[in-house]
Amino acid sequence: MTSIELHLGPLHAAGYNILRSGVRWLFDSGHYCRPNQIFAYCNITLEPASGRLSGPPPFAEELELQIAFASRIGGRVSANASTARGGYLSVRTVDVWDPDTVVASIEPDPEAGDPVGDPSRLRLLALAGRRMTDLAVTHSGLLPGWHGRSRGWWCEAGETPVTLLSLGVCDAAGLVQGEDCAFSDMFEATQTAAQMVYIPDHPLAPATPLLLDQLQRTPAQFDAIAADLKGFFERSTTPPTPNDLIFAGTVLSVMQRNPIRDGYSIFSANGLARLGPADAVLLSLAVEPNSILRHRKLGYPIHIMRHHQAAAGPAFKAWLTESFEPVRRSVDDLKRDYETLIDKIARTTGGRVIILNRMSTSGYEDVSSYLPFDAPMSETLSLVAAKEWNLMLEDIADERDLDIVDVDAIAADIGGGEHLPDSIHQSGLMQTLLRREVLNYLGNLPRAEAPLAAVR
Amino acid sequence: MIYEFRLPLIVTQMTGATVECLYAKPGDSLKMGSKLFDLSIDLGSVFAQECPPISFFRVVMREAAWLRKLDLAPGKFLQLEEEIAIFSTSPDEDINQPVTRPIRTTVAGIVHHDGMWTGSQL
Questions:
Q1: Does residue B33 sit at the A interface (CB-CB below 8 Å)?
Q2: In which band, very low, low, confident or very high, does the pLDDT at A450 lie, cut at 50, 70 and 90?
Q3: Which of A407, A414, A427, B54 is the most buried (most CB within 10 A)?
Q4: Based on the domain organization, do A212 and A359 belong to the same domain?
Q5: Ramachandran region of residue A49, left (φ > 0), alpha (ψ -120 to 50) or beta?
Q6: Cβ contact (<8 Å) for B11 and A422?
Q7: DSSP classification of residue A89
Q8: Which residue has the higher pLDDT, A199 or A376?
Q9: Which whole number is the average pLDDT over A96-121?
């Protein structure tokens, strides 16, 4: 079959020149690639065309900007060696984005079906990372570095992406980010225009009380939180170590943001545009703790997972111990928090909530009698708790717009021991199945029909 | 009769378990339903990642026996199939005689609690 040259295709950003680095390859030339499988990428910058800006540029906070490439058809992909500049020229943006540039050629798989769209034009996955600190500079790979928010979007001319915001723990992160942590599995799984946004579960884990608090917190309340933490460090008999200061800075940096209300700048073949807050928010039931820390004086909740607390120094840990008290949460408390959050999101942004429930069975348990366990058993037995919590979600879904991804049923169906061994971390197959469920829910969301408003 | 408890395979990928807390001591007369100890299983060594896949389990007696030997402390790592405890059907039997069979126990997944070793070192 005849080889097809793969072109960059159009990208526009009115008022800016789009510059790219040399192309970096994820596979050796001649590698077989599936349709829509990412095989190479480059870094991107948007340089003001006039040399002057009237306001902050649209991606000022996102110092990682990349475009990753995939072919619309499967086959053996051969690199155009001239696009790989090498050295710093494959890191720095040195070439103007030219839609006619040939990045690679492909010998199509004769068994492959018809592609969606022009097979000679690459599918583009745009990636943006907002660093947790601007010091988190790393040049290697897709979406490199330490990000407080990362996202990837894709759309064809005339399309508007629907946005999914992931605010879960590892069960949500894995299916949204995929194995390369750059959304390429989601990109490959759907050709519908979409944007995936990922907020990490550190330093603060996204339990519902924290998400609610973040939605409602005023700048004055944030200032009081920051002043209290600084005050503790000043009077603490344990001097803050570098780990304390880094941890505290990261916590404050995250606390002053509000991911559910965030909007997003994008650029594509349609030009620059601004998307509103996420159309859907993906949550994990697994993140909810049985008890949560509440600040004794200021009343706000905090939840830092145990393995992340280990990164803090002694002064920060002393602050947690002295300034917070644990508050037990019943199933009713959880239900009320979810209902409040779902209502608040619907009212504030119009977004819909999708949630991953919990695995509630295990082939490893051999409980023949529950007599040895005190009531209420859900306070002791994790699988009984998971069942109660899953039922609680069903009760909420009876009365509110809530989409439940049934992790429990899918894991039981394909084998929890093999595919969900610790009830949180899924296998590749399990992620694929969950991803399909989430995409089905996203497909049911209403889509914007009008063209997006230009940023400038 | 002498019974023993060896660390069983609770999760396929486990290589061992960590003692989280103890509920019984040598010399105790244990009834069916008595709690023995809580364990944690960390699959982190199997799935390399910074988020440790830790699960917690409780071992509960499924028959009455005297606990005669138990040399454990919270935080101790136990190997798979390691002998952990010796039981007898009467309080003063010679525990050096051959083991008749494994003690009957139940292993149940539990929720982390404040009495556990994990989390107490922060």
A1: yes
A2: very low
A3: A407
A4: yes
A5: alpha
A6: yes
A7: G
A8: A199
A9: 91
User: Chain A: nearest CA to B94, how far in angstroms?
Assistant: 29
DSSP element (H, E) containing A175: helix A170-177
Residue A134 neighbours by CB under 8 Å, 6+ apart: A63
- Judged by average pLDDT, the poorest of A126-130, A138-142, A146-150, A226-230 is A138-142
Structural domain contains residue A13: yes
Do A364 and B56 make contact, defined as CB atoms within 8 angstroms? no
Task: Supply the ipTM of this predicted assembly.
Answer: 0.80
Give the residue numbers spanning the domain of A410: 208-217+258-290+329-443
pTM: predicted TM-score of the whole model, two decimal places: 0.90
Give the distance from residue B30's alpha carbon to the nearest chain A alpha carbon, in angstroms: 12
**Cross-chain CB nearest to B109 (options A365, A368, A372):** A365
Does residue B106 belong to the interface with chain A, where contact is any CB pair within 8 Å? Answer: yes
Tokens representing A108? 């199509």
Query: In chain B, what residues touch A422 (CB-CB under 8 Å)?
Result: 11, 43, 53-55
Average pLDDT estimate for A68-80: 97
Class of domain B2-110: mainly beta
CB contact under 8 A, B122 and A309: yes
Name which of B83, B88, B35, B38 is nearest B60 in CA terms: B35
In chain A, % of residues over pLDDT 90: 80
Q: What residue of A is the nearest CA neighbor of B50? A: A307
Burial of A300 (0-12, 13-18, 19+ CB in 10 A): buried
Can you give the pLDDT at residue B113?
87
Stretch A105-114: mean pLDDT: 87
Every domain of chain B and the residues it spans: 2-110
